[in-house]
Design a protein that fits this description.
Formyl_transf_N_sf; phosphoribosylglycinamide formyltransferase 1; purine biosynthesis; transferase; globular; phosphoribosylglycinamide formyltransferase activity; Rossmann fold
Length: about 260
């Protein structure tokens, strides 16, 4: 299938992805969604082990225990966000979804070439390789739940608060290159967490307050008016909280 504006989405799925994709579909009408199989956790942790070392990775895995304890009561906050903000976290009809093993597979590149989009929206996928980025003559535009370049990688909203930088609690829409959230910045949102928010609700809060910048960026892409901006911040990639970091930040700053 195609849309009048030839937008295509690449995703691995998940409620935050569907919130953004459904917001775009309300603005532009139905368009094709290429959905990759999720990357196995074993592969992800193996890659982190190679990059960060076994001790740090073991601490990251141990942090999941207190994180589970802080999850109690957060579903009510999420339900309120869904209702008050009109979020749509459910997947569209299966007929609109093209399933591929990976965004870096021949199947994905073939689907992109067949659809011939003028712009590709990316949300929650593994890193996209050079071959896929070059498969079509179209910009790839990513939604990232963190303020680039200071909070590239994972859990940018959480780490901004954990570092005592609430002014950087927000999201970025940027062009995709071969780096980790290193492409040209298009738009950013600056938001505020609410009482009761924690690690489990930050992504929902960011998604609820960032749909407008996703729509703006894709409107620019369709009209050929993309205009990256410079953000004067130090560049750093973040991964997952360690056990000591998560507990200390929670006790000292009240950021869980």
């Amino acid at each position: 299938m195609s849309s009048p504006h030839s937008i295509v989405a690449l995703t691995a799925g998940g409620p935050h992805s569907w919130i953004m994709i459904n917001a775009l579909r309300e603005r532009f009408g139905p368009f094709a969604i290429i959905m990759e199989d999720g990357e196995p956790e074993s592969v992800l942790w193996k890659r982190r082990m190679k990059m960060l070392g076994p001790l740090k990775v073991a601490s990251m895995q141990a942090a999941r225990i207190p994180m589970k304890l802080t999850k109690r009561g957060t579903q009510a906050i999420i339900d309120d966000l869904i209702a008050s903000e009109g979020l749509q976290p459910a997947a569209p009809d299966e007929d609109d979804i093209i399933r591929v093993p990976s965004v870096n597979s021949e199947a994905c590149r073939g689907a992109l070439k067949t659809l011939g989009p003028s712009a590709v929206f990316v949300v929650s996928t593994r890193m996209i390789g050079k071959k896929t980025l070059g498969a079509v003559n179209a910009p790839f535009i990513n939604y990232h739940s963190g303020i680039n370049p200071a909070y590239r990688g994972m859990f940018g909203g959480y780490f901004a608060l954990a570092n005592g930088e609430p002014e950087h609690f927000g999201a970025t829409v940027h062009l995709v290159d071969e780096g980790v959230d290193t492409g040209g910045i298009l738009y950013q949102s600056r938001l505020e967490p609410k009482l009761g928010d924690n690690f489990h609700t930050y992504l929902w809060r960011l998604a609820a307050g960032s749909r407008d910048i996703v729509i703006k960026a894709m409107e620019d892409a369709v009209s050929g008016t993309l205009s990256p901006v410079h953000v004067n911040l130090p560049s750093r990639q973040w991964f997952a909280p360690t056990l000591g970091g998560y507990v200390w930040t929670g006790l000292s700053r009240g950021v869980w």
